[in-house]
Amino acid sequence: MRTRVTIIGAGPAGSLLAHLLQGAGIDCVLLERRSRDYVLGRIRAGVLEAGTVGVLRDADLAGRMDRPREDGGGDPHDGVGLALDHGRLRIDFADLVDRRVMLWGQTEVQRDLYDALEVDGTTFLDRVDEVDLHDLDTDRPRVTFLHDGTRQQITSDWVIGCDGSHGVSSGHVPDQRVFEHSYPFGWLGILSETPPVDDELVYASHERGFALCSMRHAMLSRYYVQCEADDRVDDWSDDRFWTELADRLPDEIAERLVTGPSIEKSITPLRSFVAEPMRHGRLLLAGDAAHVVPPTGAKGLNLAVSDVVLVAAALRAHYHEGDDDPVDAYSDVALSRVWKAVRFSWWLTTLTHRFPDRSPFDRRIQAAEFDHLASSRNARATFADNYTGLPIPLDDLHAGRPRVAA
Ligand code: APR
Ligand code: PHB
Questions:
Q1: Which site from 15, 54, 55, 286 is most exposed, i.e. has the minimal number of CB atoms within 10 Å?
Q2: Domain boundary assignment for the chain
Q3: Strand 5-8 relative to strand 177-192: parallel, antiparallel, unpaired?
Q4: What gap in Å lies between CA 172 and CA 261, rounded to an integer?
Q5: CATH superfamily of the domain spanning 5-76+101-180+271-353
């Protein structure tokens, strides 16, 4: 097989990239290890930054999301709540930065993307195995793999590694520098067919640990509690979960909590990870293949989107304008945005979680940060600026460099 761009991995990063390239008249082949049903069944976060919403609309992927909320569409949120022990405050995005976020599950985004790929007629091979990358230093890189028991090979101009944190692409960047930070806890998440406890998300920090109230729609709630890193789902009965959640929320919220059986329950370890650079020869990395953030800022999907918007712009410049400066700038420009999201996710995690080795000093620092947010409009505006999403640095890509050298 021969194509211009081979994309490895069809999560949000790979499938959005395939759709954007299709729109730009650049043909590609998409390879995915899992089955379509498996990918569509994954439950992930559900907060879209303002810029992500714009990207989906511009790419004609927002039809279902933009339906009225009563008809199953996305839910625009003007703010979020924060709670520390018994204190509460609200970050009013609309007032502070005139932007909002959209509650629309990654599962739905993925479904719209797969539908779009079908309409586009994209060559999409799922359940591929033994994917391997070759000749990345040349301008004819190759990807080999097994599909339906047959060994196949694709030659292309570019290979884009969108294969997530357990993929193979990242390992093909020699002299890679890895920056890693792990957190000594996990998140236990449940979905339940109950009405959400509040109209907006609530991030709660409590002596017993962090808790998050989120939602998918009027009768589907998503809740999380901080748990031990080595806890197993079986350690957490529904009763234990609901009791722990209620204990960590301010009383007036806990009183409104409607409990019910969980329909999904899973544990996520928390870590920050960045692999630099995001390019080697004709291989570019995007999304979780290059970086992972803890879910506290809901940045994972949004970073995948901003990366592939930059990749698509760089490849458009390569093919349509014969300009390779954007491709050359890609890694530095993407990383300049990635690190800001890594910082925000780390900061919000540190502000809201209970650390086992935390001293009374650290606890006072958390309280002071919270107090600063409560008393300073500037502090809240900084939160809102980061949470609703920093701009996708397309101008920097075309200028050929990040604003501040990496
Ligand atoms: N060959 C082909 N596909 C692979 C391989 C491989 N060797 N290894 C992994 N994959 C596939 C995975 O099965 C997965 O579907 O790559 C895809 C990567 O998708 P994601 O993990 O969703 O990563 P990404 O598209 O970068 O999206 C990042 O989604 O994963 C969440 O929390 C993450 O929100 C973040 C966002
Ligand atoms: C979710 O709804 O699953 C969710 C929301 C916000 C986060 C993480 C997850 O920060």
A1: 54
A2: 5-76+101-180+271-353
A3: unpaired
A4: 44
A5: FAD/NAD(P)-binding domain (3.50.50.60)
Q: Is residue 32 lining ligand 1, measured as CB closer than 6 Å?
A: yes
- For residue range 372-381, list pLDDT tens digits in order: 999 999 999 9
Task: State the amino acid at position 383 in one-letter form.
Answer: F
Q: What is the DSSP string of 76-119?
A: EESEEEEEETTEEEEEEHHHHHS--EEE--HHHHHHHHHHHHHH
Distance CA 276, CA 92 (A): 35
10 CA to centre of ligand 1 in angstroms:
6
387 is catalytic: yes
Task: Say how many Å lie between the CA of residue 114 and the centre of ligand 1.
Answer: 14
Q: Is the CB of 12 under 6 A from ligand 1?
A: yes
Q: What average pLDDT score do residues 180-197 get?
A: 96
For residue 143, the cross-strand partners are 133, 154
Which run of H or E residues covers position 187? strand 177-192
What's the CA gap between 198 and 38, in Å, rounded?
31
